């Protein structure tokens, strides 16, 4: 009977060790889950910022380069008769027209 009691006591000791490991893992898992939730918010905010930056980049890419701008100026004021304001309006109209159709 002493052998059986010793085995049971050893089993109880092993179960207590496993229980301690399990509780430790549960605590660490909960901490990791909480950290991950915070990171999800950061990731979400970064995705929104990325989307905004992509939109802004797309807008910039639609702007004419120097050669295109020179062609627009030649087309809208080839004789250099427009003043600065009128030239700016004509350029803007030409760029808007090109981007919409």
What topology emerges from the helices and strands here?
Layout (H helix, E strand, L loop, with lengths): L1 H60 L4 H12 L6 H17 L1
Helix pairs in contact: 2-3
Shape: rod-shaped
Order of helices and strands: HHH
The percentage helix is over 70%
Structural class: mainly alpha
The span between the termini is 95 Å
Please explain how this structure is put together:
Helix 2 (66-77) crosses helix 3. The protein is built from three helices and no strands. With 101 residues, the chain is mostly helical. The protein is rod-shaped.
Note the main attributes of this structure:
101 residues, mainly alpha, 2 domains, rod-shaped, 88% helix, single chain, 3 helices
Summarize the structure.
The protein is an all-alpha fold. The chain has helices at residues 2-61, 66-77, 84-100.
